[in-house]
Specification:
Elements: H1 3-36, H2 39-58, E1 61-62, E2 65-66, H3 67-85, H4 87-94, H5 96-117, H6 125-130, H7 132-135, H8 142-145, H9 155-174, H10 178-187, H11 196-210, H12 218-238, H13 240-256, H14 258-261, H15 265-289, H16 302-313, E3 323-325, E4 328-330, H17 334-352, H18 387-416, H19 422-434, H20 444-459
Antiparallel strand pairs: 1-2, 3-4
Helix pairs in contact: 2-9, 3-4, 4-5, 5-18, 9-11, 9-12, 11-12, 11-13, 11-19, 11-20, 12-13, 12-15, 13-19, 17-18, 18-19
């Protein structure tokens, strides 16, 4: 090698080293930014936003479609793909019985629509909206399909939960930033605070991921007591059904982890004091504020205003919680009575029209919800506020039997595989809350429930 060539090589190497030293800080920054926006992190950000903004977020318009509608379409595609093409994945995750249940559900959906409206029914978007309780089953396969079953073990998700829980309290009852309110009013079809069922689900997911960690982490130990005391009064204030579900999940989580709680008596005593303080302060604050829903913008508080009118339509008399009158079950509680009358109207109408076996189908509104006093202030409420009654109305006893069987088989599989028992409690809690709410007819609630449940089953 000539002397000139050696000089050229040395000069080139020095130039590379110099350039590297100059660009190193920027390259490192780019790498950190790219990691921040990695595919896995983007999925976590999506879940966090869904936790905090719920219905408002899923109502944002994208290319003429709401985000929730796109999510339902994605769930439908995932369900068809796995039931028709990848039944092996369904078998591995849920068992062979689930495949046949899903197939029978889909066959019924096609036969009902072909017999009532022919092929034109499948071009009607309202048909798919009415069948959303079917398509949300597809969310079970989302994260396993993406091979992201360990995604919620990432530090970024675990850390974000410590902010999401107190933020959900603040946004629901203390202060909602004006710029966020204006954003959703401008770009979403509706602006809504988190409902009691949303708060229940967020807290239940926290219980699933964090109660098992209290034995090794004092911060999580103390945070669990504090956040439980903070959120419980808000959930009770928001929804009695959601509060019962929350207490069911929480009591079981405490019982299951009782040894971890009692490992340090001094720490336990201190944590119990913190729980009592936050519980008391939160209760006093919520009682003191006495939020007047009638002073809040109608678009912002439609659900709460609707419940206010419900109490006026069915006032609380000096009657027992349940009683029989005119051969119908009634309640002295106005909110519960409103629901009871809808459910009985649905069953009575199905029976009279001889549709109890196969249901109304998927065209139009369920007849019991055509009454003006059941449509909400904006006239858009079409939900019977009961997951199982909705299934009965749309698919009859046939669908109801299939869905109940699916959940029974799912609970049986969790037991057979010796998965953590908190998963069974989680499922039962969700179904109980959905028995008194329209949560499973929404998008965000079943999306979070099914996708996170599938991850926990796959992990174990």
């Amino acid at each position: 090698m000539s002397e000139r060539t050696k000089i050229q090589i040395n000069t080139f190497n020095k130039l590379k080293i110099t350039l590297f030293k100059i660009l190193e800080p920027y390259v490192g920054g780019i790498n950190r930014i790219s990691t921040f926006f990695s595919f896995q992190n983007i999925i976590i950000y999506f879940y966090c936003i869904l936790f905090l903004f719920g219905r408002s977020f899923t109502g944002i318009n994208f290319f003429g479609f709401r985000l929730g509608e796109l999510m339902i379409a994605g769930g439908m595609v995932m369900l068809f793909y796995h039931v028709i093409v990848r039944t092996d994945r369904v078998n591995n995750l849920l068992g062979k019985k689930a495949v046949w249940i899903f197939r029978l559900v889909l066959i019924h959906f096609f036969i009902m629509n072909l017999s009532s409206g022919g092929l034109n029914n499948f071009l009607n978007t309202s048909v798919y909206r009415s069948g959303s309780y079917i398509w949300t089953l597809g969310f079970i396969f989302l994260l396993p399909f993406l091979s992201k079953t360990r995604i919620f073990d990432r530090n970024i998700f675990l850390t974000s939960m410590f902010f999401i829980l107190p933020l959900s309290y603040v946004l629901t009852s203390v202060y909602y930033p004006g710029f966020l309110e204006n954003f959703f009013l401008n770009f979403s079809d509706k602006f809504r605070y988190l409902k009691g069922s949303d708060l229940f689900l967020i807290f239940s997911i926290y219980c699933i991921f964090f109660f098992e960690r209290i034995k090794n982490n004092n911060f999580i130990y103390l945070f669990t007591f504090i956040i439980s005391g903070l959120l419980l009064p808000l959930i009770i204030f928001s929804s009695r059904g959601a509060s019962i579900g929350t207490m069911f999940v929480l009591i079981y989580a405490i019982y299951e982890n009782r040894k971890a709680f009692l490992r340090n008596k001094i720490l336990f005593t201190f944590a119990l004091v913190l729980f009592t303080i936050t519980l008391t302060l939160s209760s006093i604050y919520l009682d003191w504020t006495k939020i007047d829903f009638e002073e809040i913008n109608t678009e912002m508080a439609i659900e709460s205003l609707e419940m206010t009118l419900v109490s006026k339509r069915y006032p609380e008399y000096d009657k027992p919680i349940f009683y029989i009158e005119n051969s119908r079950l009634n309640s002295g509680d106005g909110n519960l009575n409103w629901r009871l009358q809808i459910w009985q109207d649905v069953m009575q109408d199905l029976s009279q029209k001889e549709l109890l076996i196969f249901g109304y189908g998927y065209e139009g509104i369920i007849p019991a919800m055509e009454r003006i006093d059941r449509a909400g202030l904006d006239g858009s409420n079409i939900h019977v506020h009961n997951y199982f009654i909705n299934i009965l109305a749309r698919g009859g006893l046939y669908h109801l039997f299939l869905f109940v069987s699916f959940y029974l088989f799912l609970l049986q599989r969790i037991s057979k595989l010796e998965l953590p028992r908190n998963l069974r409690v989680f499922i039962i809690g969700v179904l109980f809350v959905s028995f008194f709410d329209s949560s499973m007819e929404s998008v965000r609630f079943p999306f979070l429930f099914f996708s996170i449940l599938s991850v926990k089953i796959k992990q174990e």
